[in-house]
Design a protein that fits this description.
- The chain has an eight-stranded antiparallel beta barrel, surrounded by four helices.
- The two termini are 22 Å apart.
- It is α+β, with helices and mostly antiparallel strands.
- Helices cover 38% and strands 30% of the residues.
- The chain contains seven helices and nine strands; from the N terminus they run H-E-H-E-E-H-H-E-E-E-H-E-E-H-H-E.
Length: 250
């Protein structure tokens, strides 16, 4: 893939976003996202093959990089055909991987470019865990909501509200696997919101059952009470997530 950021630029982004989330008193970690279009005649099977090569490349370099392929669902136009989400457990590990990629990953980058064009969207964000007891997950469902913090409130207030709402939903039987806040950093343009709330599920059965609780089981009303005046989220998009590489405790 082209447009890999230089380490110094990436570290500036991490420092910037850590200032924004420092008051959360939670570790902040970097993630990158590519929004891509298929090259003519190419598709998922081709990307999976290149992804397998990438995983072996990362293994040889002891990279702590985890990655998923994201396929949009229930949405006609999200601006791209397929997404690539990757993350590290720290800025230092990000720098190590990017250095290795820039020095000897260009042949593999050309193989990615032959499958998909990611030149128009490469973004860096900082992630704060809201509720992720098992860390980053495997194959499953990922839901992104765009959220805006209310005037006079902070990111810390928003995350606390999400945690409270999540505990409420869990007490009702909700099966979401984990919840995160993604704060935009570099390459994200002028978004008209403050962060993404990212919720994961193991499968559609969990997603459907949780939707029942939220819509018909009082979850929506109680969530509104908790979130009102703190943060507002909407415009959710669902993706199927396929693991390319998952590093334990990353």
């Amino acid at each position: 893939m082209k447009k890999i950021l230089a380490v110094v630029v990436g570290l500036v982004a991490i420092a910037t976003m850590q200032i924004a989330v420092a008051q959360e008193q939670r570790p902040a970690t970097p993630v990158e996202f590519y929004g891509c279009h298929w090259q003519d005649g190419k598709g998922m099977a081709d990307l999976v093959k290149v992804g397998q090569k990438f995983s072996k490349w990362a293994d040889k370099r002891d990279s702590k990089y985890s990655a998923w392929i994201l396929s949009p669902q229930f949405q006609t136009d999200v601006g791209f055909d397929v997404g690539w989400l990757g993350g590290w457990p720290s800025g230092a590990e990000m720098g190590k991987t990017l250095d290795a990629w820039k020095s000897d990953g260009q042949d593999l980058a050309a193989e990615f470019d032959a499958v998909m064009d990611c030149s128009n969207r490469h973004e860096l964000a900082t992630v704060v865990e809201i509720n992720a007891p098992n860390g980053p997950g495997g194959n499953g469902i990922v839901m992104f909501d765009a959220c805006t913090v209310a005037d006079g409130k902070t990111g810390a207030d928003a995350i606390a509200a999400h945690a409270k709402a999540g505990a409420m939903m869990k007490s009702k039987g909700a099966k979401a696997t984990s919840t995160w806040a993604f704060f935009p950093a570099l390459g994200t343009g002028d978004y008209d919101f403050d962060y993404w709330r990212v919720v994961t599920f193991d499968n559609y059965s969990q997603f459907g059952a949780t939707s029942d609780i939220f819509i018909n089981g009082g979850g929506w009303q109680e969530s509104m009470k908790i979130m009102s005046g703190v943060t507002e989220c909407g415009g959710g998009v669902i993706f199927d997530a396929m693991v390319v590489r998952l590093v334990p405790d990353s």
